[in-house]
Amino acid sequence: MTVLESDGGVAPGIARIERIDGGVELGHGWAVRLGQGSRGRLALEVYADEALLDVMVEGALTAEPLRGARRAAAAGPVLSWGLLPADGVTPLVRFGRGDAGEAVPRVVAERFWIALGPAGAERVSVATRPGADWEELRISAVR
Description:
Order of helices and strands: EEEEEEEEEEEEEE
Shape: globular
Oligomer: single chain
């Protein structure tokens, strides 16, 4: 089941999911919504406390396995997101450095992924499959 197919249940690593205007509220001020990009391509909109942070449009040529990572509130979880690879395999995601435990990413509309991590995390890393190089991004605060 993908995030937007949820019926309001509780997902591992994600607070209670509530439907909002064509999207879902992830808790702690985070929300995602599907939209339509240029040429009719599917887009994922990422919100923090109702402020639009990012619009990621599915790409035909290349995937962005790790698109963004933000911290909204000091006590709340961080959110990271990206585009699934062409084969649709859910990436490996970890918050922190080196031997940090892996997070459970959730698939959105079979094209994107999102993951919530611990509030104190400074970095998020993503690998498209076991044995692949990890792509790392420093988590920045929502402005």
